[in-house]
Amino acid sequence: MKTIKPPNRCNVLAPTPPTKHLWQFSADGEQPKVEANIAIPLDKPVPANLAAKDWRTLAQPRLNIAWLSTENVFIRVVQLPQADPSELGSMLEFQLEKISPLPVAQIVWSFEIVPSSEINNITAIVIIVARDSIEERIGAFEQIGYQPDRLELPHVYQLVADAPMSEGVWVYPWSEGGREFCLVAWWFTGTMRNLQLIHLPTTGDRGGMLKEQLLKTAWAGEMEGWLNFPLRWHVVAAPGRGEEWRAVFEGWADGGLAISEQMAPDQMAQFSARRTMQGKPAANLLPPEFADRYRQQFLDRLWMRGLGVVMVVYVVGVLGYFLAVQGLRVRMAGVQKKVVAISQSYTNTLRMKERVQILQDQLNLKYAALDSWKAASDLLPTDLTLNQLVFGRGQTLDLRGTAESAKALADYNDAIRTATLNGQPLFKSVSPPTSSTRPGTTSLNWAFTCELNRQEIE
Q: Of 74, 95, 165, 328, which is least packed with CB atoms within 10 Å of its CB?
């Protein structure tokens, strides 16, 4: 069997004119803690923050209980043999045809179990309500924004919470919507033998009408053998109305009369919430199809809200993307404008730089040529004649001339190779000299090439 998580919050709504009353309880040990206790005008909806369910309900379940008015309600007591609690509903269903004043297809019913001193006996209070009345009440609850998970009859709580299990007749009178009702429980031999729901008139001889109804039940009980005279009468009245009801019973209640106070509405609401939070069985008159519909609507709302959140996040993401793209486009347009603005000056700057570089190269080459010429002149031996000095595109220096001896030529070539300027070699490389004898003479024509050291030039 699937375990149902107990509710973390429990709302109890009592639609009793002139206002409707709402209690909210939270789980707090044995006794639920009151979180809210408010009266709401009949034409106002229930606050959504108290009754509505959202995604937090999945982790912290919330249960809505609504109380039914006593109109169109029928109550019967049924004695059953001992059986498994799970089979009691089926056993009572077989008896509905006999105890229901309406066709079974037109009713909604549930039951409460009350203690009994008989070992082999189970006493059940069967609550029967016309289906159209239930649906009308549910529609009224939905109109004020309250979807009940349970429909309960609050005036049965007194019987369940404080079962006397002693001889006598227990009368529970109350007022509801300007009408008077009276619930009468007949207890004998430790078992509830009969239960009556009596509608009392608000005018006229209320005591005489009640006396007639009770004496008829007493005579019927005597004939069935479960009632003994004299009767002990117990009136459980609302606070402040005990003496009023004492006057109603005095004069004909011959077996003694005891007056006590009923549970206050706050106590009844707490009792209902405690039973629900503790998972104790209780009568629920909400048709199963409504509970299934509410749950499906709740799940649909979660799905739709989840999809809505996803769509909002998606739309925000798309808008953010387009805004970012637009921002980048604006920035790019600004950069392009700046590029256009500085492109002409940049081009002019490049041209100026190239011209300066050319002039600098020309100046460097000019000094390089002068330095090479000076080195070639200063190092020239007396036995050699320099006839031609060619400065080739700033890269090479060609030297040509005549010599009287090969040794002097070799010395001059070595001197040029080792020539320096500012501590750096003047020439990167110097080729060996080439020579040839001049026709008809003993002198030599010579030539060699020097590669300038550009690093030194620059």
A: 328
pLDDT band with cut points at 50, 70 and 90 for residue 419: confident
Say if CB 367 and CB 342 are below 8 A apart. Answer: no
Taking domain 372-457, whether its CATH number is 3.30.1360.100 is answered by: yes
Residue 265 φ then ψ, to 5°: -55, -35
Q: What is the pLDDT of residue 254?
A: 74
Q: How does residue 8 score in pLDDT terms, banded at 50, 70 and 90?
A: confident
pTM of the model: 0.68
Q: Say whether 180 sits in a helix, a strand or coil.
A: strand
Closest Cα to residue 158, out of 197, 101, 214, 130? Answer: 197
Task: Detail the DSSP E strand segments found in 47-206.
Answer: 62-67, 73-81, 107-114, 121-130, 150-152, 168-176, 179-188, 191-200
Using DSSP, state whether 179 is helix, strand or coil: strand
Measure the CA–CA gap between 240 and 247, rounded to whole angstroms: 13
- CA 432/CA 414 separation, integer angstroms: 9
How confident is the model at residue 367, as a pLDDT?
75
Strand, coil or helix: what is 356?
Answer: helix
Domain boundaries, the chain: 163-262, 372-457
Position 231, amino acid: L
Asked if 458 contacts 432 with a C-beta cutoff of 8 angstroms, the reply is: no
Taking the C-alpha atoms of residue 180 and residue 175, their distance in angstroms, rounded to an integer, is 5
Three-class SS state of 226: coil
CATH fold label, 163-262: Nucleotidyltransferase; domain 5 (3.30.420)
Q: What is the pLDDT, as a whole number, of residue 440?
A: 67
Cα separation, 406 vs 413, in Å, equals 11
Are 27 and 277 in contact by the 8 Å Cβ rule? The answer is: yes
Token readout for 108 is 């909604």
Q: What is the CA radius of gyration of the chain?
A: 57
Tell me the mean pLDDT in the region 64-89. Answer: 90
Taking residue 105's Cβ as centre, other Cβ atoms within 10 Å add up to: 6
CB 21, CB 181: distance < 8 Å: no
Contact 291, 149 (CB under 8 A): yes
With pLDDT > 70 as the criterion, what percentage of the chain qualifies?
Answer: 96
